[in-house]
Write a structure and sequence with these properties.
There is one protein chain. Helix content is 36%, strand content 13%. By secondary structure, it is of the alpha/beta class. The strands form three sheets. The protein has an eight-stranded parallel β-barrel, surrounded by five helices. A two-stranded antiparallel sheet has the order 1-2. A two-stranded antiparallel ribbon has the order 8-9. Helix 4 runs parallel beside helix 6, helix 7 packs parallel to helix 8 and helix 9 crosses helix 10. The longest helix is centred in the C-terminal third of the chain and has 19 residues. The model has no long low-confidence stretch (mean pLDDT 93).
Length: 395
Amino acid sequence: MSERTHMRSELNADVTPAAVGEFPTPRIGKFELNPPVILAPMAGVTNAPFRRLCREMGGALYVSEMVNARALAEGHRRSLKLASFTDDEYPRSLQIYGTDPESVSTAIHTLVSEDRVDHIDMNFGCPAPKVTRNGGGAAVPARPRLFSRIVSAAVSAAGDIPVTVKFRKGIDDTLLTSNTAGRIAEAEGAAAVALHARTAYQLYSGSADWNAVGELKSVVTTIPVFGNGDIFEPWDALRMMRMTGCDGVVVGRGCLGRPWLFRDLNAVFAGDEPPPPPTVADISATMTRHATLLHEWFGGQLGIQLFRKHANWYLAGLPVGRSVRAAMNTVDHPTDIARILAPIDQSISYPLEALRVVRSHSGGPRPVALPQRFLEHLDSDLPPGREADVVVSGG
């Protein structure tokens, strides 16, 4: 076979496609995940157009941007837009963030009663200072009694709609919470749990600790466990599952500017080699498709403005030159993309060295911002206050 068919990093040189029956198909409620792959919710990224683009590449569970529970309960327009889906999207998978069990319950009850969602994911992994400094996001599992109340409220309000829970290893290496959080989520009726195998202190730096995924799998035994962190190639997913015994993977930054990663994941889980990497012509067509979807969903200029950051991710690692990158940052219409890339040799394949280029977040480590005296009251089950639910969805 050609070199293009076998493109992989040295890290995955010896990884083979999945054998028949090697990985049982996990279930989230009534939904079977085949392949066992979930798109990680990412602020400003996993909107309806991006989810549709990824679905066109292959099967998986594609989750929306994070939406604030209180903002949903109060009917904030931007949050309602983020919580909307295209008519052909199924299952409709929405991620909710909240620190107050009552707000979480109200928001989910409304979504379910109005038949606007098929799956709910709860975010307890956000490390953003504006969230953790008020006791929210990745800080919540450090207070297991409050964490338990929120998960219980979500599951109760959701009824037959499955609720999954995503969290990090902990605040930092001195306050690890993932195993406790997993046990609690399992006991409160969550349909599955997912671990981003970094602490909040790490943010997005260093390497994900896949051993922590294996530890979580050993203590959470009745529901699926998904691992998140450093899935840049389809082979990474197989390595993680073989190493940890987890039931599936959550893909975040690895698919930015590379939605065809889901096509490749479908292949290796089906026991096949991935298709050849895309050429510049293929990438140009995908970029145009993405920009068009954003243009149609958000309307004219806003959609194109949102596309520009994606353009930088698509071009990362490609030999296109500074002038092309600069032109793409000022693109005004989807039809401009092919014109800008036309001078580039259209037959050039996506390069090996671009496979593991980190896109988007790369900051850390950084001390976690927490409320004053937060660590002195880890046994509290009380919400940290309305200020913790920063009414900004998608971020």
